[in-house]
Amino acid sequence: MARPGAGAHRHRQARSRSFRECRGPAYHGCGRDSSRRDWGLMLRALYSFLIIAALSALAIWLADNPGDLVMHWRGYEIRTSFVVGLGLLVVVAFLVLFVYRLAMGALRAPAGVSAYFIQSRRRRGFLALTRGMVAVAAGDASEARRYAGRAKRFLDETPLTLLLAAQAAQLEGKEDAAKGYFEAMLAAPETEFLGLRGLFVQARRAGDKARALELARRAFSLRPKTPWAAQAVFEIETSEEDWDASLATLDRMLSAKLLTRDVARHRRAVLLTALAQTAEEAAVAQVGEAKRVPRERALSLALDAASLEPDFVPAVALAAKLCGETGRVRRGAKLVEGLWARHPHPDLAEAYMNLIEGESAYDRFKRVRLLAGHNRDHIESRVALARAAVAARDWLAARGALEPFVGANATERPSQRICELMAAIEEGEHGDRGSAREWLARALHAPEDAAWAGEAYRSHRWSPINPVTGEFDALTWRAPGLRLAPVVVPSAPVPVPMAVAPIAEEKPVRVAEHHLRPQVEEDEALAVAPPLPDDPGPTGADEFDGDIGANEGQKW
């Protein structure tokens, strides 16, 4: 049974809740909006009242002043009251308007019918286009070709129909037909960029680097803020070792904000180091005074690269080497010593040892001791000290430097270069060729030392690109990881007459400077670049995922 007064109580609660909602953060705005609505309702009611009052006043006036309306036409006299005549005039006006509308509708009927059929064709064309795109995504070549024909019949050669026809032709392996569709896109400004991308993908697949570079440059000029075009131009120019053009492209990419400043700075350091290497090679090919100009240019480029990336070992090592060749020994030593304290490296040690031409082995050993003091316990410091001591025939110092790696307290197997140094020490100090041969034999099976490695490439000399794949800045300094070859377990037990089952042989991997190398561990970081676009799909800024600054490149 309802409680007395419950309805009034609920009404008060609703009013209170409405008031609390209105007194929220936008209380003042809520009041203004409600006031405006109230004023609008009042004005509309006032206008309606005024119109009704005016019509009522007119009807009363006509009733008080009836009057007569007389019309003479062809000997006839038509007489009626004014109110009836006015009503007849209104009816005639409505009839004339109705006939006019009917006639105009009849005249416009063909255009309306034509518009209906056009809309129907467009609707069927877009439906065929949608289904064709789905067929392309599913890899159904026959369905894609059929829907491409229907879309072209209903929509003519619009950009999307041309794209669908080109992709359907590519699915069927008809590259010439696809090329024709992409070239047809170049004729219209709205489809030119799409056609350039399609032709670029075809040229890249065919291995035509010159044509691919031409198309990528044209696309980059057309839309400088498109990542794939800029990336393609930069990758092809670096793979062709066109360092000047690569620097110009890098500046344009930075201006278009396609790269972060840190990535652009590192790439510039690599390119400047590559230019310095090229200038150094040109200086080596010259004789006498002609060497000075290219050598000075190489030094300037290397110093610029080292200033951009102070921890970039190839730039610092090359700058130190050129400082020594041009008589700037102190500056070269300062460069190497500054980086050695943070990142000791064999390239830095080599450049430091050769700073002074014609220096005695004893003096070089003294300088290397100073260098090793900047990072005393690092393996590179001890190896450099051992090399200099062997050259100076200071066998005690050489053994002491290598003691942590070959002594009784060694925690791991000595690497190849440590075994070779120990062989030189044994033969040089005692003339013990047997011990030397023993160390050399151990070196054959010792762990490999770190080197500049990339995909299918390994070398002790740094290169700005991977010579095998053409990838830019793809070499990293690392030691190869070792693992045992997997043993193939037969499906059925097979009797083995030997006491020990044979171990599955490990397939050799092709490399640039070694015939064989151990397999790389699965979790080892590899310098693999993101591929270029494989289809002429969306052309917006979101078509590239990931950072453009990562190692990129296509294997040509």
From TrEMBL:
Q: Which residues form the HemY N-terminal domain?
A: 67-173
Gene3D superfamilies named in the record: Tetratricopeptide repeat domain
Which Pfam families does the record associate with it? HemY_N
Annotated region (Disordered) at 520-556
A cellular-component GO term for this protein:
membrane
Location of this chain's protein in the cell:
Membrane
The species is: Parvibaculum sedimenti
Q: Does the keyword NADP apply?
A: no
- Going by the entry's taxonomy, the superkingdom of the source organism is recorded as Bacteria
What protein name does the entry list? Heme biosynthesis protein HemY
Keyword line: Membrane, Transmembrane, Transmembrane helix
Provide the transmembrane region boundaries: 41-62, 82-100
High-level lineage: Bacteria, Pseudomonadati, Pseudomonadota, Alphaproteobacteria, Hyphomicrobiales
